[in-house]
Here is the input.
Amino acid sequence: MPVIVDNLTYTYGKGTLSRQVLKGVSFQANDGEVLIITGPSGSGKTTMLTIIGALRPFAQGRVEIHGVDLKGLDTRGLLDIRKRIGFVFQKHNLLKSLTVYENVEASLHGLPESSEETNRPRAHAMLRAVGLEGRGHGYPDAMSGGEQQRVAVARALVRLPDLIIADEPTASLDAASGRLVMAAMRDLATKLGCVVMIATHDERVFDIADRRLHMNDGRLEQVG
Amino acid sequence: MNLPFSTRLALRQIRYKGWGLIGACAGIAVAVVLIFAQLGFQGALVNSVLNLCRALKADIVLTGPQFETIAYSPPWFARDILYAAREVEGVRDALPAYIYIAQTRDVSDSRPLVARFIAFDPAYPILNIPEIERQTPELRLPDAVLMDSRSRQGFEQLLALYQRDGMQRVYLQTPNADLAPAFDVRGTFALGPDFTLPGTFVTSDLNYYRFFGVPLDRVALGLVTLAPGVDKAGAVAALQARLGEAVQVRTLEAFMQAERDYFTHSTPIGIIFMFGVGVGVLIGAVFVLQVLHGIIEANLSEYAVLRAMGYGDNFFLALVVQVATVLAVMAFLPSVLLTMLLYQWASTATGLTLALNPGLILTVFLATLIMSIIAVVLALRKLRRSNPLDLFT
Here is the structure.
């Protein structure tokens, strides 16, 4: 199973000030599956995504990504596992000093299979896949918000990740742009066979998910 | 050219700063010029003291036990010691040099001018200056002196009068002006001023005695020449063994190094100049840091995304090091040009020799890199604020 989360428990702080935000969360996800995670603020969804994204060490429970157990990994190990994960955030966070193509290519540097010869066609192919063919030599500032977010999606997917974690990727986009971004993510995830986990409050895009998981007070409730 | 990603990103982020970079580079350049000025002037000042040392005809220099520097009136030692030195094997000759710092009266307005008088037996010139050797017959005349044509700060007038009218009579400054001894400038030579004394005169040992009344058995320097092929270190050891604690025995090179060390380490001059270099490094570091902070602040979220993608601390360290280094180099090159102009102006104004040699350029470049390193170390604190966890809503 590509992603396994088993009895994940997480507590902030110590002693009387401690607060348990994840209370034994368990679920699994298959290749190519798109999961939407919803829940009110403070329900624990961000904490869960940062743990699954190898951004936050944890002590209780089990998280496996393609057979690699994240528990107990040191900083180096977490960095290595993150090279197999793509991230999309609410803001595109593209480097303004680099071209669109170079922003996408930045995702490939440091990967074991990275080379100058292969990076260029891969980056251009991914820009084509998100509908931005021919825009690679421009700069992010010259693009609309939706286009910039699609570049961010291309940046996350170009490394052919095992897992994509997206946090409110459509929150700052209008409905049409939001659907374009989500459709791009959905199509590519299916083609590439990677798991996609999207934390969102945007009901307009719920329909693109294979499953919707709802978090409430640190516990997971499967909605559909 | 396939540059590493950190290098490409560093160059792009510098370029993206655009015109805003000019102010920062100008600030760094001013700091670099300040460092050049401090080290250049220090070098020139110390070098000016060494002008006389370089001109000495000697393999080995003898000085009194309390001797510290040639720049002020050196303490004397007994001339008999030179006779003893001549008996040491390998010594060809040991000649006395007399040095006296005195005030002369300005030819135009009678204000006091400090000058150094160097005296020796005209039969045995002690300075490797052809103009002096050529004019030793004049030096034998009573009250005759030769004047350093590169003397400054008040001596220009005297030189101009000499060049126009020939021999000039000059009086020494004494409490009773009517009894002041006088001397005649009968020729010139070129040595150059040092920063402690604006003017130098050369005269005979007999005139020296006549002017200052100092007995000639009180010697300031003993200048020892060795027979061809004699090992200097061996001769120094033999002389020290023969002469004991009555004198310091050093090769000319060691004597010059001691002069350098004296002004660099034992006087406030060295400390003041080093303080100036330190201030320059700090000012430059502040300007480099300002640019680094600007770039990091503008890209905190973008760097956080790169961290999320697996870029580690080493990448970001390489990035800021390269930004800082490129800034330093960008500011350094115009600084060298500015320094050349500054040195040219200062040389003309002071008569000191300010040389922009490769060693100095390398030293200042290293200081510039140190300012970059300081800025990088300080900038890393800010860089740690780029945290991928902050990207989640």
Summary: The interface with chain A takes residues 2, 5, 8-9, 12-13, 15-16, 298-299, 301-302, 304-306, 308-312, 315, 388-389, 391-393 of chain B (CB under 8 Å). The longest helix of chain B spans residues 313-350.
